[in-house]
Amino acid sequence: FFRADLSTIENLYRSRGYLDVDFVRRSYSLDDDGALHIRLKIDSGARWTVSHVRAQFDGQDTLLASILRSRLRVAPDDVFRYGNVIDDERELLIWLNSEGFAHAQVHNQVDLDSRRQQAAVSYAVTTGKRMYFGALTIEQSNLQTRRSLLDQQFAFAEGQLYDPEKLRRTRNNLSRTGLFRSVTLATPATAPEDSVQPVVLRLQERKFVQLRSRLFVNNSEPGVSGRVQHTNFLGRGNQIGADASL
What we know:
Layout (H helix, E strand, L loop, with lengths): L1 H14 L6 E9 L5 E8 L5 E10 L3 H9 L11 H17 L6 E9 L4 E9 L5 E8 L7 H5 L12 H13 L3 E7 L9 E10 L3 E9 L4 E12 L4 E8 L1
Parallel strand pairs: 3-5, 6-8
Antiparallel strand pairs: 1-2, 4-5, 7-8, 9-10, 10-11
């Protein structure tokens, strides 16, 4: 536990730009009650800064490259925090996906100069082609739920600009119906020259017929009760059931 605490302290300093942090002294003492006291002397070192930021964009026009550069938060002379570099990488990818670049890739590289306590940050961005939603394929045999009910839950349509947020909303809409045990939306890889992104929907339906029974004894006589219920009647998501008792 103590070693884990030391690592936590060290990571805390590093996350604030003190990459040369060091524990220069550790002392331990016991008091009269047998409690252990730990004292640490920490040398944080100088705070590291960002020397420069480079961004390389493959296969994109000047306007898009300018927009991507403007979205970077890491800037020269800032305190170096690797967490900010990761945030920039993630935000660039999210923005590119929302603009239709379904197969975009963003990678960062950090070169450390321990003599100057500086870090050079580079981003390599490959956007690929802007994609549009293609045909939707449902991989489920003997599907009881009607296609018309599924269509009501889709947040995208064929020919629209690709947006992963619409896939997320579609998955949530289908899950909220309560008709499926699992909902998966996949976007298979396409040919480099293709700009149509097909979507594959994989569904696992729940058991729609539910049977319940209960045996009981009251003050005068025993009895039994039961219920049968169908939670997806005629594939429309409607519930129908019957109760009986003896």
